[in-house]
């Protein structure tokens, strides 16, 4: 049996540990190269993607209240079949509905892939639309915390979750957010030597504590080309080794 309130405490402890010890310095040559994709990239040759050094990928599953990405199922299956670590994400619009509606949509499409199979990464939710909050959830923080709780309740196993967000959008969220930040800073920095916190609106409510910190986990660093992907896609980094990624972000653990 899962206990969400108890696990909230574990999340805080785990993320504090990751920031202090489990995540490497930002200028590490051991950073992992990944991508995140959707149907906008067209048909993807995942064998070629894997041969080009990509270790992990996040695949868009759903958007808003009713959209299913048409290439999600094929991308998830073929990515795993070619040895990549794969995560699913939902593009959220809190202005459209209560969090439960979008959590239901996401889980109905992606829930069967978020399993302890040695290749599934914890899921993510993309926060790029700031058009207000629907339902009784009066803040973005409350909306995303409830979205996480709604997804958690549907899973038979414990799940962490990433929120894909720009440093400045992160400032729209309170310091009681339960999700770890997957930072967007597409300013062309090198995946192995850059720092996603190099631009940040001044706010105290960041998972790293301050801007310009080396403490980060995932980073969407640029848009570029990768062999096997027809159209430009998002280029991501994970701030650590493959062993770190599997130990911290793999559903069900190693």
Describe this structure in words.
With 254 residues, this protein is α/β, with parallel strands linked by helices. The protein has a single domain, classed as TIM Barrel. It has 7 helices and 9 strands; from the N terminus they run αβαββαβαβαβαβββα. The protein has an 8-stranded mixed barrel. A hairpin with an 8-residue loop joins strand 8 and strand 9. Helix 4 packs parallel to helix 5. The protein is globular and about 45 Å long. It starts with a helix and ends in a 5-residue tail after the last helix. The N terminus is likely disordered.
Low-confidence stretches: 1-26, 204-210
Could you give the count of β-strands?
Answer: 9
* Strand fraction: 15-25%
Count every helix, treating DSSP H or I runs of 4 or more residues as helices: 7
Structural class: alpha/beta
Any key phrases for this structure?
alpha/beta; 9 strands; disordered N terminus; 254 residues; globular; TIM Barrel; 7 helices
């Amino acid at each position: 049996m899962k206990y969400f309130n108890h696990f909230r405490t574990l999340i805080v402890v785990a993320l504090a540990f990751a920031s202090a010890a489990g995540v490497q310095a930002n200028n590490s040559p051991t950073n992992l190269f990944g991508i995140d994709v959707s149907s906008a990239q067209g048909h993807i040759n995942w064998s070629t993607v894997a041969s080009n050094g990509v270790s992990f990928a996040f695949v868009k599953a759903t958007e808003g209240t009713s959209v299913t990405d048409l290439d999600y199922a094929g991308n998830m299956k073929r990515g795993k079949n070619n040895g990549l670590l794969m995560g699913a994400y939902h593009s959220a619009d809190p202005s459209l509905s209560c969090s439960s509606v979008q959590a239901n949509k996401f889980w109905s499409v992606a829930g069967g892939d978020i399993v302890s199979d040695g290749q599934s990464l914890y899921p993510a939710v993309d926060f790029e639309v700031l058009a207000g909050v629907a339902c009784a959830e009066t803040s973005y923080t409350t909306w995303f915390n409830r979205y996480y709780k709604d997804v958690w309740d549907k899973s038979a196993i414990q799940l962490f979750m990433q929120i894909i967000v720009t440093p400045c959008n992160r400032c729209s969220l309170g310091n009681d957010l339960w999700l770890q930040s997957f930072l967007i800073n597409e300013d062309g920095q090198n995946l192995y030597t850059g720092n996603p916190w190099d631009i940040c609106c001044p706010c105290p409510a960041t998972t790293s504590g301050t801007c310009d910190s080396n403490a980060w986990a995932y980073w969407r660093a640029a848009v570029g080309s990768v062999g096997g992907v027809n159209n430009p896609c998002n280029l991501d980094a994970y701030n650590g080794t493959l062993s770190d990624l599997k130990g911290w972000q793999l559903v069900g653990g190693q």
